[in-house]
Amino acid sequence: MAFNLQFFGATERVTGSLYLLSAGDCQIVLECGLVQGAADEEARNRDPLPFDPQDIHAVVISHSHIDHSGRVPLLVRQGYTGPVYTHEASKALCEIMLPDSGYLNEKEAEWENKKRGRKGKARIPPLYTREDAEASINQFRGLEYDAPTEIAPGVTLTLFDAGHILGSSIVQIEYDGGDGKRTLVFSGDLGYRDAPLMDPTTRLQHADTVLMESTYGDRDHRPITETIAELTDVFESARAAQGNILIPAFTVGRTQDLLYLMAEHYDEWNLGKWNIFLDSPMGISATKVYSRFRHLFGATLFEPKSDYPVLPNLYATRSAEESMTINEIEAGAIIIAGSGMCTGGRILHHLKNNVWRPQCHIMIVGYQAIGTLGRRLVDGADEIRLWGDTYRVRAQRHTIGGLSAHGDQADLVDWYSSFENRPPVYLVHGEERGQRPLLGKLKADLGAPAHIARYQQKISI
């Protein structure tokens, strides 16, 4: 019986992962993520879903990042009543992240409707609400690694550690429709070989078809030793300049990596002379989930029998009042805040108070999608706009590429090379500039039947 896959998201772009798997008479949604980036890109989240939610038998999510999970509440609101399968740690993180996404949707709709009201335009509803997100969590089913689970007739799901963030999974889906078993392997987001916190990525040996992310398919990250040296220089120069350091950080993954590295290099980086602020309610909650599932990684991040990271001068600021107090500090503050691409969140308030100060530093430690404020800062923008006002960028900028949670070209090629039968591989979750070099590398070095996935393309497994 037919076993097919159709691509509806993260084709020749990084965000908005969404794929539809047909296994006999069953339909399974693989990933259900939000499109992120510029306003015109994010507007695509309001496009009708390319399938009827009531026809779906199961949903599988590789990990909790919003570009992979963020449309699940929308799917549920539109009539999906079945299970959402993911790793148990990813479920715990989605319990934090999806309601936060719903809250942000409500605020964005409120802001947009104020502008529409002044122009006499019709109001728009939120994409989904916090209440929608909380309701969708009831349909999540948490799984462990390497635990085969039947999710539809003849369809078996097994998750393996992808090494990207806590709970991130390589998704293996096997289908036996009576004419032989066939296997689809989806990489999810693969971790970097020098990841500070996560365990190494699992290697698999067989698949009939592979979907592989390609975020950094055009480059190799610098060695971790060089990254540590670069961070040392940033902390030393910032301390000498007597300014603050702003770190826009994804609240799940990058934040915990930073806390671990700061604890590991506390003396080397003279961090005792700083006050470190984790200024992110969601980041604080996510860090507690990392503590709960600390058995999933080998590195020591927490004090024994405690949820608190091994950092004596770390301040976790949950309330808005505590966050506003940080803005009164002119020097000696390291501020870790979301959002990681500077598209919202508390980091914007800290930029407003620091970006125009030459003694301050902005440390970019994660991927910045085209169209985001973070990307404009990386690309050297002289000015930025916040809440209608223009601010001159005089703070010093540092892009720390070696802290990526995504594998680089070498990691991606190495991961695929473990498949002994060299199955067809389709590149997703990457921009064309990253996919073209990776495609060539896979073909030239491994003789791989490699392809770049196209929007709405349908393939047989």
Quick structural overview:
The protein is an alpha/beta fold and 461 residues long.
Top keywords for this entry?
single chain; about 450 residues; alpha/beta; Metallo-beta-lactamase, Chain A; Rossmann fold; 7-stranded mixed beta sheet; globular
SSE blueprint and pairings:
Elements: E1 3-7, E2 18-23, E3 26-32, H1 39-42, E4 58-60, H2 66-69, H3 72-77, E5 84-87, H4 88-119, H5 130-136, E6 140-143, E7 149-152, E8 155-161, E9 169-176, E10 181-186, E11 209-213, H6 224-241, E12 245-248, H7 254-264, E13 275-278, H8 281-292, E14 314-316, H9 320-326, E15 333-337, H10 347-354, E16 361-364, H11 373-378, E17 383-386, E18 389-392, E19 396-399, H12 409-417, E20 425-428, H13 432-446, E21 450-452, E22 458-460
Parallel strand pairs: 3-4, 4-5, 5-6, 10-11, 11-20, 12-15, 12-16, 13-14, 13-15, 16-19, 20-21
Antiparallel strand pairs: 1-2, 1-22, 2-3, 7-8, 8-9, 9-10, 17-18
Helix pairs in contact: 4-5, 4-8, 12-13
Give an overview of the whole structure.
The protein has 461 residues and is of the alpha/beta class. The chain contains 13 helices and 22 strands. The longest helix is centred in the N-terminal third of the chain and has 32 residues. The N and C termini lie close together (11 Å). The relative contact order is 0.15.
Return residue spans where pLDDT drops below 50 for at least 5 consecutive residues.
none
**Which fold name fills CATH's third level, the topology of the largest domain?**
Metallo-beta-lactamase, Chain A
> What is the overall pLDDT average?
94
**Proportion of strand residues:** 15-25%
- Coarse shape: globular
| Distance between the first and last residues' Cα | 11 Å
Gyration radius, rounded: 22 Å
Helix content: 25-40%
CATH class of the largest domain: Alpha Beta
The strand line-up of the biggest sheet is 6-5-4-3-2-1-22
CATH architecture of the largest domain: 4-Layer Sandwich
CATH superfamily annotation of the largest domain: Ribonuclease Z/Hydroxyacylglutathione hydrolase-like
Profile the largest sheet.
7 strands, mixed
- How many helices? The count is 13
Multimeric organization: single chain
Helix vs. strand class: alpha/beta
Give me the count of strands.
22
> How many domains comprise the coordinates?
2
